[in-house]
């Protein structure tokens, strides 16, 4: 197990629940329907990838010292910060230019999942 990624995943999951509750209660009457939908997309992707971070951290028990797992975790974390973070800021400020960096976070998510898959398939024995 890798405590860094399990810990980051748990923190990101905690924050996802907090941000989701904030959006549902405090922002529902403040944001437009479109902006609230953007905000909720950030929350959903943050939670999915928080769980992905936990999975990466737990995979280290079966594949210790895997560089691919390490990259998977950092890509997922970067994706959360860039993808979800840009959607949160866009929703709260209305600065539409932030939408231009959101796809970079999406690419980081894809790279994270790809690295996780590569690490698992490179492992010679069953996990």
What's the helix and strand layout?
Elements: H1 3-27, H2 33-59, H3 67-93, H4 102-122
Helix pairs in contact: 1-2, 1-3, 2-3, 2-4, 3-4
What does this molecule look like?
- InterPro entries: DUF423.
- It is a multi-pass membrane protein.
- It is found in: Membrane.
- This is DUF423 domain-containing protein.
- It holds the Pfam family DUF423.
- The chain has 127 residues and is mainly alpha-helical.
- The protein has one domain.
- Helices cover 79% and strands 0% of the residues.
- The protein has helices at residues 3-27, 33-59, 67-93, 102-122.
Shape annotation: elongated
Secondary structure: helix percent:
over 70%
The total tally of domains equals 1
Decide which structural class fits the backbone. mainly alpha
Strand percent estimate: under 5%
The termini sit apart by 13 Å
Mean pLDDT: 95
**Topology as H/E string?**
HHHH
Main location: membrane
Protein name: DUF423 domain-containing protein
Organism: Paenibacillus validus
Family: Belongs to the UPF0382 family.
């Amino acid at each position: 197990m890798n405590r860094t990624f399990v810990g980051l995943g748990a923190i990101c999951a905690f924050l996802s629940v907090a941000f989701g509750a904030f959006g549902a209660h405090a922002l529902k009457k403040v944001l437009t329907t479109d902006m609230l939908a953007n905000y909720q997309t950030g929350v959903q992707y943050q939670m999915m990838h928080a769980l992905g971070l936990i999975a990466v951290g737990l995979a280290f028990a079966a594949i210790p010292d895997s560089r691919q797992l390490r990259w998977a975790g950092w890509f997922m974390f970067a994706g959360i910060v860039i993808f979800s973070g840009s959607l949160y800021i866009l929703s709260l400020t209305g600065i539409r230019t932030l939408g231009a960096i959101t796809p970079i976070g999406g690419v980081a998510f894809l790279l994270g999942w790809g690295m996780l898959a590569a690490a698992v398939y490179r492992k010679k024995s069953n996990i």
